[in-house]
């Protein structure tokens, strides 16, 4: 991760990833925009401030407030960015400001960044590897040789060493170990070993012997790939996947021919249980629920009940396994109804308690056990950071971080989590059009050396399945790049060599925090994560600490200081000057140039303005869905919506925002009974928002409507809608 010295040479970026937009300005228009940008920049921040502020701090000394001062949007927020207000900037020396030109007063009127008093807690840690070889297990020699040669693995991980023998003995199990510790093979190896050893050889037409349920389609594909590789020497056992996004008809055809190890997302399986005659569970010997807590979270309870009933109706004797890095108390319900006399395997137990793990019962739901269950192990090689950034500066800080990693450091692969599909789309388009050289609405002169080393990809549940799969594959195989995504990518995905996880919107639970950061530092590799919080959200650090999660602070100034190295953003005043040290004032100016670049793009057409407004609304709606226990930290009233609008490149906050934020509150006051009901609706929205939908209540309604149309038990919206041609995932 060594930082290269200075600006690295530009490699022409493939334009294939850059969508053509009908609103891209013509050259003359672009030149006009460039000139306007320069004029604005000159007007807004080139002149030195009347009072020199501390050279070490970016934020002006001002009346402080730990919270972002909430304001009603009418009038006040507008004032912040209005020409009238801007004229106040003249006190800072902005004498040349043209009437009507709105400027990006990024560093004014921000709330003070509070000191983070983070309690240092001892994180729970697990040992990843053991020195025991797979040969030590009683496995078929061809299976061992496949593990050694195809997977290129020799020694077992801790979770594999504990789980495989227990599962080979025929026991049910509840398995918890940290992210990226090898849980997939911990259950796949025993399944394959037991099925290949069956006395009467399995026939394809027998149907499923093992059923593996996973929450997302990408995870289904990934698990399918692992099973398929393990089955190389045992060609008579046929794996297959049902995951939505594929034509139901072709899935039915594959079911008819026979699938012996069936990997499915719950909704899609229920769909087949209800509509496909050929599906049966007479032979089932294994039922595996990977990411078991998420399967419950996603509101799949009903689906799981349908599946369990269908399987129980035809077969009672089978082994059941639940796995996750975060098996919380909620899973005990699932354990109760699906496991028989299970063994609880928790790798962190090994270091705490060397006594025989096999005899461990599932912890009772006592407060103490709850505490234990709510402290999650985090890979020792994962460094976690947090930065507190005022709302107005969020966008430039995120862009600064991306530039730092991708432009000035080598081999960086980043995943950035957002809370909704709209947020992903907005930032994806914005960065493509502004941070890549000559790629769009910006005048080429505005960013003469915009990075050509950047590659942006996006993944969320509203994309067509074909694109989802292509992005997943491309990012998997890529050495560098930035993946913008929702929580659809948070669970189970094994994307190699990811160096940084950025959480631009905080997760809705500690479990989701653990899974998001768990996309890096897998299987003993190094990795880092950054959580971006608003000043009013700083207390979230304590909430993480209560789950034994330790984060170190990175100062916003340190993130923005990358702009000192990036002459793309230098103002005219410094234009002709050769390399010299760049102080905080100039970094502030460069940040203003960058913000102006974003604002110019957003305001370059009606379409882009409306895209930004839509994303902002989506943000507000998603923000309203934080669970009750986090509401004191993430409450819309604590945010200055005008400042938040700035982080969407909007110069003025849309007028209807305050209505959006207060409508629900008023309604709740009128009908307290309804309020109680809407809490569970909110919970549903929270659950669905990042996985399959936009996080907007309307999306939840859409899901319901769509599901109604598609029939009960069908996959959520995107799964139903994206009926794509057959993927090459089955073996037929
Ligand atoms: N014994 C092993 N030796 C080396 N690498 C291994 C071993 N077992 C698994 N791996 C690799 O470790 C990585 C993580 O494995 P896996 O995806 O199964 O983790 P996980 O525990 O299921 O993670 P998550 O909780 O995020 O789903 C994979 O790339 C896998 O190939």
From TrEMBL:
Domain called Helicase C-terminal: residue spans: 381-560
GO cellular component: Golgi apparatus; nucleolus
Compartment(s) where it occurs, according to its Swiss-Prot or TrEMBL record: Nucleus, Nucleolus
BP term (GO), one: ribosome biogenesis
Principal EC category: hydrolase
Record text about domains: The Q motif is unique to and characteristic of the DEAD box family of RNA helicases and controls ATP binding and hydrolysis.
PANTHER family (UniProt xref): RNA HELICASE
UniProt name for this protein: ATP-dependent RNA helicase
Taxonomic placement: Eukaryota, Metazoa, Chordata, Craniata, Vertebrata
């Amino acid at each position: 991760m060594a930082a290269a010295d200075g600006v690295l040479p530009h490699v022409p970026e493939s334009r294939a990833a850059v969508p053509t937009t009908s609103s891209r300005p013509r050259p003359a228009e672009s030149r006009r925009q460039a000139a306007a940008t320069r004029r604005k920049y000159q007007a807004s921040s080139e002149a030195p401030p009347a009072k020199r502020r501390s050279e070490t701090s970016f934020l002006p000394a001002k009346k402080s407030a730990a919270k972002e001062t909430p304001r009603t949007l009418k009038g006040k927020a507008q004032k912040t960015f209005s020409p009238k207000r801007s004229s106040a900037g003249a006190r800072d020396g902005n004498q040349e400001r043209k009437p009507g030109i709105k400027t990006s007063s990024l560093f004014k009127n921000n709330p003070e960044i509070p000191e983070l008093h983070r309690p240092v807690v001892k994180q729970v840690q697990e040992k990843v590897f053991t020195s025991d070889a797979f040969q030590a297990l009683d496995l078929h020699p061809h299976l061992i040789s496949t593990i050694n040669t195809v997977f290129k693995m020799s020694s077992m991980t801790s979770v594999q060493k504990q789980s495989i023998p227990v599962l080979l003995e025929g026991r049910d199990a509840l398995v918890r170990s940290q992210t990226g510790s090898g849980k997939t093979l911990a259950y796949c190896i025993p399944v394959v070993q037991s099925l290949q050893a069956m006395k009467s050889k399995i026939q394809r037409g027998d149907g499923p012997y093992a059923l593996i349920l996973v929450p997302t389609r990408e995870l289904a594909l990934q698990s399918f790939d692992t099973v398929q590789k393990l089955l190389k020497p045992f060609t008579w056992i046929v794996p297959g996947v049902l995951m939505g996004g594929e034509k139901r008809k072709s899935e039915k055809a594959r079911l008819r021919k026979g699938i012996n190890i069936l990997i499915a997302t719950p909704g899609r399986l229920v769909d087949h249980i209800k509509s496909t005659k050929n599906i049966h569970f007479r032979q089932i010997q294994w039922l595996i629920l990977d990411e078991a807590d998420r399967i419950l979270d996603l509101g799949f309870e009903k689906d799981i009940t349908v599946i369990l009933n269908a399987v129980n109706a035809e077969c009672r004797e089978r082994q059941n396994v639940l796995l996750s890095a975060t098996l919380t108390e909620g899973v005990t319900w699932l354990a109760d109804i699906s496991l028989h006399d299970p063994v609880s395997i928790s790798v962190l137990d090994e270091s705490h308690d060397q006594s025989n793990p096999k005899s461990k019962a599932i912890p009772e739901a006592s407060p103490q056990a709850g505490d234990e269950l709510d402290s999650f192990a985090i890979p020792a090689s994962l460094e976690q950071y947090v930065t507190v950034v005022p709302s107005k500066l969020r966008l430039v800080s995120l862009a600064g971080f991306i530039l730092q990693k991708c432009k000035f450091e080598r081999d960086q692969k980043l995943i950035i989590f957002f809370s909704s599909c709209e947020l992903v789309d907005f930032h994806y388009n914005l960065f493509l059009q502004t941070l890549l050289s000559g790629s769009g609405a910006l005048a080429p002169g505005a960013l003469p050396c915009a990075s050509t080393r950047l590659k942006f990809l996006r993944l969320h549940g509203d994309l067509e399945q074909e694109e989802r799969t292509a992005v997943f594959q491309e990012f998997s195989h890529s050495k560098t790049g930035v993946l913008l995504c929702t929580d659809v990518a948070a669970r189970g995905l094994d994307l190699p060599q990811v160096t940084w996880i950025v959480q631009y919107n905080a997760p809705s639970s500690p479990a989701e925090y653990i899974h998001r950061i768990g996309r890096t530092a897998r299987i003993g590799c190094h990795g880092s994560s950054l959580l971006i919080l608003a000043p009013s959200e700083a207390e979230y650090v304590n909430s993480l600490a209560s789950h034994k999660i330790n984060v170190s602070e990175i100062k916003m100034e340190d993130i923005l200081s990358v702009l000192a190295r990036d002459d793309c953003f230098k103002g005219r005043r410094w234009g002709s000057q050769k390399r010299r040290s760049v102080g905080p004032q100039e970094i502030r100016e460069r940040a203003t140039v960058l913000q102006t670049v974003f604002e110019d793009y957003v305001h370059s057409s009606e379409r882009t303005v409306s895209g930004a407004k839509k994303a902002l609304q989506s943000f507000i709606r998603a923000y309203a869905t934080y669970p009750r226990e986090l509401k004191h930290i993430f409450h819309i009233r604590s945010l200055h919506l005008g400042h938040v609008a700035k982080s969407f490149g909007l110069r003025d906050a849309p007028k209807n925002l305050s209505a959006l934020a207060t409508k629900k509150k008023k309604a709740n006051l009128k009908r307290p009974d309804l309020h109680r009901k809407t809490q569970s609706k909110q919970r549903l929205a929270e659950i669905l928002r990042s996985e399959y939908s936009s996080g907007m209540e309307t999306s939840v309604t859409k899901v319901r409507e769509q599901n109604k149309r598609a029939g009960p038990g069908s996959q959520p919206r995107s799964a139903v809608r994206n009926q794509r041609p057959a993927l090459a995932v089955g073996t037929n």
